[in-house]
Each structure stands twice: as C-alpha cells, then as structure tokens.
Amino acid sequence: MYLDELRTLLDRHARPDWTTDIDGVLISRVDSEDPPAPSTSGTVLAVIAQGAKHLALGDRVYEYGAGQYLVASVDLPVTGHFIGASAQHPALGFGLTLEPSAIAELLLLAGPGDVPRAGGQGGALPAIAVSDAPGDLLDAVVRLLRLLDEPRDRAVLAPLVTREVLWRVMTGEQGALVRQLGLADSSLSHVARAVRWIREHYTQPFRVEDVARLSGMSVSAFHRNFQAVTALSPIQFQKQIRLQEARLLLAVHPHDIAQVGYRVGYDSPSQFSREYRRQFGAPPSEDATRLSRSVRAPATVLP
Length: 303
Fold this sequence. Notes:
Jelly Rolls; Arc Repressor Mutant, subunit A; five-stranded antiparallel β-sheet; 12 helices; globular; Tscrpt_reg_AraC-type_HTH; transcription; transcription regulation; Homeodomain-like_sf; Tscrpt_reg_HTH_AraC_N
C-alpha cells in the first residue's frame, strides 16, 4: 500500500545530494552496503521505505528498516551503515528536518487534551528513538512527496502537509521526544544548548561546571540529562566531535596528520593517534590514505 507508492516516489525523485524541491525534505537512495562510517544525526525524522540501517550512538545501537521511522532530536555524532543495500535493491528513505519553531507553533495551536501530557518530573529522553510507522504518518509522507510531481500546487500545499507530518509524529509513539524540541525550557533544550556550545568550541578545554551553568542546570542534573540524551559524557562528546572533524580534515590533507591533530584540539600527537585508532580502527596515516580515495556520503541518519 503506502510503502509501495513511497518506494516509487523516493526512487523517482532521489538526487545525488539528497535534496528536493520541498524545504526540509530529503530523499536518500543508497546502492551499496558500506562499512560503518561516522556522521552526524541532525534533528530529523527519517522514514525507511526499503532496506535497513544500523546506527550507533555511544553504547546505544539502533536498527530500523522498511516501515519504520527514526526520530533524532539533537545533532549528535553517530556511526552507521546500510544493511543489504545493492544496485538491484537500494535503500530508500525519506527525511524531514525537525524545526523547533514549527513544533512550538503546532503546540500553541493544539487544543486542551489534543497533545498527551508529559508525565512526572522525569529527566530528558534519549535523543534518538525508533518506532513502527503508523498508516496515518505514511499516508501524509506519501501525499507530501506526490507534490514533487505537482509544481503548481507545491508552494501552497507542501507547508500544510509538512505540518501534518509533524503533527502525526508529535502525537505518535515518539511524540514526547519530538515535543521537547518545541519547549523552550525542556530538559532537551538545556542539553541542546550545551551540545551547541561544545560543537562551537570543541577545540578548547572546558570545565563541566561552566557548561552546566551555561545550559541552565546544576552539575548533577546536567550530567544526568546529558548522558540520557546523548549516551555520552560531555568530555566523551567533545572527543567524538574532535575525531570526526579530524577525519574530515584528513580526507583533504592526508599528509598533514600532526597539524590536523593540533587543529582539532590535541596537544599530543601520540594521544591523537591513539584515540583516532581506537575510534576508527586504523591509525590516522592509514585511514587518511583510504579517505583520500573515497567519496563521503552526506552526513545524516537517513538511509
């Protein structure tokens, strides 16, 4: 039913850069099963129509396949790979960027009782979750993608159907996770503030107490919520960002390993090499040679 048409639409409109003519909508088509590779999750809804993907965040592992959707509420360093993708049976996926302002607007429009109430004073939810996609969500996604074939209607109808897709997710099984994105004072928003700061200052050493204060939480609450959302400690998160940035730089500058280590914040070349090998399974020199021969896929959780 919905999945058959979804596969057809995704296959027809897939582009090499994964963009579409609808703002915030991505389409992926992957023709091979590559080794696990680091990327960033983005804040995204990803629906798979064909194939499957294995995704790791810290010590958490997610696998999602045809008829399932994944929600990522914070842009996090992840490692993933497609399972069983081939030219004859490519992985096909739909993605929608989750904008906090759009979610907040829908929360304001919702009537009393339209949105499930959050229970208790629990901390932040994990930033990534997987569920089976219900029919009403798949129906809305299919109708949104049909507009790629209707240029006259797209400008008017695409924003409306996009809001419906968001609403279906916000009121679905993972709705609590998505709704946190639209709440300015949620635990998730505090952690996201810290994540942005660490990303912007990843080369610099920091005190956890200072980042906790910046995020608006006590040190104990910050540790607890940051770990819950990201599956990493703040220092581990910084290390992941440093190493991913180093890998991107090495793809362009494969013979400048020591300088790359310094640029991402390492004072010790030996420590950089040791942690790089532990993360990627090969020393920087070897991995840089391999990277310079390959073309990286877009950084996203989408398959």
